[in-house]
Specification:
The chain has a 7-stranded antiparallel beta sheet with strand order 1-9-6-11-4-3-2, covered by helices on one side. It has a 4-stranded antiparallel beta sheet with strand order 5-10-7-8, with no helix packed on it. The protein has a domain of 178 residues: Jelly Rolls (Sandwich), CATH 2.60.120.620. Helix content is 23%, strand content 22%. By secondary structure, it is of the alpha+beta class. 38% of the residues are buried. The structure holds 2-oxoglutaric acid and fe (ii) ion (FE2). The site of fe (ii) ion has 4 residues, from loops.
Length: 261
């Protein structure tokens, strides 16, 4: 089983690809990665239990160490994912912002680059509060397993209407961003071939090479190192919902606080 593999086989992995500046991520403490430890790390006092299986999280840890990205299906429990689907479907388009490129403060809307609508997630409903608490637990778990020094998490719902896309981009530029790990959770029932909207991930060393293409199907979670992997969203042929988020490091210097979002 994946978790036992983790605990016995992973000590010091040599990896000089995606991790680059993140060499510290290649070290895992084998004694930490038992089923009991992982399940303890993922135990969260939510209204709806977020996890029903450890395997997707164990796979995610393994993938991040070895290649710097991971896509896992049924990452959360069915009920938890369904509550998020209901939540995003209930958001009125008038209450969403046309997404800009860069931070929220930029108010920059670059229609050539992306065409989705977003709403930042604050803990103002039960499921939003649960989601943020769950991602906080994941932050702590990732730090304890991969020594990433992640400091916080920000996330928004995204709605791509028919015809929307997000052209090839990086979520963070080296030395210019506090974003370390990007996460995208997909919230769409029965995505079919031909409906577009795939996430395409490109090779970190040669970004003209496609290394993965994924339907935005309900319950699927994509995670990758924000500075390392170009990715894009192919034109969607139906409404496409997701939660995009970023684990960040703290970049507070002196009296200047690093603004979020
Ligand atoms: O929704 C996706 O598949 C990717 C979204 C994305 O790349 C972003 O919001 O930065
Ligand atoms: Fe992105």
């Amino acid at each position: 089983m994946m978790i036992s593999n983790l605990s016995v086989s992973v000590a010091w992995l040599q990896y000089d690809g995606a991790l680059g500046d993140f060499a510290f991520l290649t070290v895992i403490n084998p004694s930490m990665s038992t089923d009991a430890t992982l399940s303890g790390l993922l135990h969260i006092e939510n209204t709806i239990p977020a996890f029903s299986r450890l395997e997707p999280f164990a796979n995610l840890l393994q993938d991040l160490q070895t290649k710097g990205w991971s896509v896992q299906d049924d990452f959360f429990s069915t009920d938890f994912t369904q509550a998020l689907v209901n939540e995003v479907e209930g958001v009125r388009s008038v209450d969403m912002l046309q997404a800009g490129v860069g931070r929220k403060q930029d108010h920059q809307i670059v229609l050539e680059a992306r065409r989705d609508y977003i709403q930042w997630i604050d803990p103002n409903t039960v499921i939003r509060t649960d989601f943020l608490a769950t991602m906080e637990a994941l932050r702590v778990a990732l730090n304890s397993q991969l020594f990433l020094g992640l400091f916080d998490y920000e996330a928004h719902f995204a709605r791509y209407e028919e015809g929307a896309f997000y052209e090839k981009h990086l979520d963070a530029f080296k030395g210019q961003s506090t974003r370390i790990l990007s996460t995208i959770l997909y919230l769409n029932e029965d995505w079919q071939d031909g409906e577009g909207g795939e996430l395409v991930i490109y090779d970190e060393k040669n970004p003209s090479i496609e290394i993965g293409r994924f339907f935005p199907k309900k319950g699927r979670m994509a995670v990758f190192l924000s500075e390392c992997f170009y990715h894009e969203v192919i034109v969607s042929r139906r409404t496409r919902h997701s939660i995009a988020g970023w684990f960040r490091v703290n970049n507070t210097t002196g009296a200047v606080l690093d603004p979020d979002q």
